[in-house]
Amino acid sequence: MAKDDEAEDKGKKGGSKKKLLIIIIAAVVVLIGGGAGAYFAFFSGSGEKDAHPEPTPSAVVVADAITVNLADGHYLKIAIALQTTTEAAEAVDTSKALDLVISQFSNLEVAELSTNKQREAEKAELTEKVVKAYTEEKAEYVMAVYFTEFVIQ
C-alpha cells in the first residue's frame, strides 16, 4: 500500500505540473493575442483617411509672375499656378497665394534656392501654407502649387 500512495502522489504532482504548464501557455497565448489586437487597433493606419476622401483636381489657375527681393541684391522672378479642386465654385483669387510667395521667398540667400532639393523643400512648405490658406470649413479649394517660372538673378 505504501508504494501505491507514493505512485498516487507522483501522479498528482505530474498532473498538477501539466495543468500549470497548460495554464501558463494559455496565458501567454492570450497576452500575445491581446497585444497583437491592440497594435492593429491603435497603431495600424488611422481612420481619418477614410473619413476625408482625397480632393478631386479641377482647373489650374495661373497667377501673374512677380519679382521678389533676395538677399545681397539678388532677385527671384517667380510665377505660380494653383491646382484647384472641384469644391472651388469659381475661379480662385490668387492674391493670398502671391502674398505667401512673397513672405516665403523674400530675403532668402541665393544658395538656399540653388539646388533642386532646397527648392523642392521651399515649394513643399509653400504648398502647405497655400492649401491651409484656401481651406475653409474642411473644404479644400487648392490642392497643389506649381512653379511655372523660377528665375534667380
Provide a quick synopsis of the model.
This protein folds into two domains: 2-44; 54-152, Tetrahydropterin Synthase, Chain A. It is built from four helices and six strands. Helices cover 48% and strands 24% of the residues.
Features:
4 helices, four-stranded antiparallel β-sheet, single chain, 153 residues, elongated, Tetrahydropterin Synthase, Chain A, alpha+beta, 2 domains, two-stranded antiparallel sheet
Description:
With 153 residues, the protein is an alpha+beta fold. It folds into 2 domains: 2-44; 54-152, Tetrahydropterin Synthase, Chain A (2-Layer Sandwich). 48% of the residues lie in helices and 24% in strands. The chain contains 4 helices and 6 strands. Strands 1, 2, 3 and 6 form a 4-stranded antiparallel sheet that branches. It has a two-stranded antiparallel ribbon with strand order 4-5. A hairpin with a 5-residue loop joins strand 2 and strand 3. It is elongated and about 90 Å long. It starts with a helix and ends with a strand.
- Count of spatially separate domains: 2
CATH topology of the largest domain: Tetrahydropterin Synthase, Chain A
Q: Indicate the structural class.
A: alpha+beta
Mean pLDDT across all amino acids: 83
Which percent range fits the helix content?
40-55%
Task: Please tell me how large the radius of gyration is.
Answer: 33 Å
The percent range for strand residues is 15-25%
Instruction: Assign the CATH class of the largest domain.
Output: Alpha Beta
Distance between the termini: 108 Å
